[in-house]
Specification:
Blueprint lengths: L7 H23 L5 H10 L3 H8 L1 H11 L4 H13 L4 H4 L8 H16 L5 H7 L9 H12 L17 E5 L16 E5 H8 L19 E5 L6 E5 L5 H11 L1 H7 L2 H23 L12 H22 L7 H13 L2 H12 L1
Antiparallel strand pairs: 1-2, 3-4
Helix pairs in contact: 1-4, 2-3, 3-4, 3-8, 13-14, 14-15, 14-16
Length: about 350
């Protein structure tokens, strides 16, 4: 539910994927429809990054040759450049599919599946495309570990922790099963929890929807609680983004998840009330110097203590956004208590301490 800011190291790692695909497509366009024997010679004698990699990775060499001889290579290249150059708007507009023959679709799926599943984890790829790489042997594991350390809570549900790699999953925002050309595109790889990616979202994406690299979903909706703090509803802050909010909610079954976690709100309510009551009793025992005249009644004192504790809770939870689970829920809960349910809460506390 929070926008993810990628630092220089993650950009370094994932930009290597983009550079590789750019090199791959550029080389095939420069050498298309050339006879197989000549292609193999050019790969063997080549001194650019892609040919150096192909010299060490047989499958890269084979796929270079297959793409060079493919009759729809120019269309494939146009697709890739269209997808990547307009990617930032695709979560709003969706992707226009190109018509390709079955053979070409299978070639793309096989090649880019290999690039993601195997190639980017090889030493050959690291040595050629990432200078002085010293991370984990498997690059996908390095991505999961590093991003999980920086952003330890799932950006979709804000509930599951992803700082341990075996509990995280690399989501292809536009699913690789349907958009294979984006299988290793940097902007399409989002670290999420296994629940959101593998068990819920899977191979589906409904447009328009918030992408955590380009949008901060928190800006567009709030979690609304009923006056008894028993149910939670996702509400768009602006009608313009109502469909976006619905799609985001439905894609990850968030309203269902949060209503099962309503205990977190009850726990916050109990903690807040306990802190206000203790502060009230302490003040009554030893009034703060210079403040006694400000509180002529218990109601004034409760109002002062409750407001300050709520404001502090909002501030504290905002500092922990993306670092600890359920911060969106807790922030929205306290803001509603401050702006909507304050008098109700004040009356409840006053009845207890009176």
């Amino acid at each position: 539910m929070w926008k993810i800011d990628r630092d220089e190291y993650i950009i370094l790692l994932t930009s290597a994927f983009d550079q590789f695909v750019d090199d791959f497509i550029a080389w095939t366009l420069d050498n298309q429809q050339i006879k197989l024997e000549e292609l193999q010679l050019r790969i063997r004698d080549g001194n650019c990054r892609i040919t150096k990699l192909a010299q060490r990775a047989t499958k890269v060499r084979d796929y270079l040759c297959k793409f060079c001889s493919n009759s729809e290579l120019n269309t494939v290249a146009s697709m890739y450049y269209y997808y990547t150059s307009t990617y930032h708007v695709l979560p709003a507009t969706g992707i226009n599919n190109y018509s390709l023959i079955q053979e070409t679709q299978e070639l793309i799926h096989d090649a880019f599946g290999y690039f993601y599943d195997q190639l980017i984890d090889t030493i050959a790829f690291h040595n050629i495309y990432i200078h002085n790489y010293s991370g984990l042997p498997e690059l996908k594991q390095e991505f999961r570990k590093y991003v999980g350390d920086k952003h330890p809570v799932c950006p979709y549900c804000d509930y599951s922790e992803i700082d341990i790699p075996r509990f995280s999953s690399i989501d292809h925002f536009f699913p690789k099963g349907r958009y294979a050309l984006l299988s290793i595109y940097s902007n399409n790889l989002v670290l999420a929890c296994a629940g959101c990616n593998d068990r819920i979202k899977g191979e589906h994406v409904t447009i328009p929807i918030f992408h955590p690299y380009f949008y901060n979903p928190d800006d567009y909706f709030y979690l609304s609680l009923d006056h008894e703090y028993e149910t939670i509803e996702f509400i768009a802050k602006n009608d313009e983004y109502k469909v976006w909010v619905e799609n985001f909610n439905n894609s990850f079954k968030l309203e269902e998840l949060y209503n099962k976690r309503i205990r977190a709100v009850h726990s916050e309510t109990g903690d807040l009330r306990g802190k206000v009551r203790r502060a009230f009793r302490n003040y009554k025992k030893t009034p703060l110097q210079g403040l006694k005249r400000r509180f002529e009644t218990d109601g004034e004192l409760i109002e002062f203590l409750l407001m300050n504790h709520i404001r502090y809770a909002i501030h504290k939870n905002k500092q922990l956004r993306g670092k600890e689970p359920l911060r969106k829920l807790k922030i929205d809960f306290y803001e509603q208590m401050l702006n909507i349910y304050f008098e109700k809460e004040k009356e409840y506390l006053l009845n207890i301490v009176s």
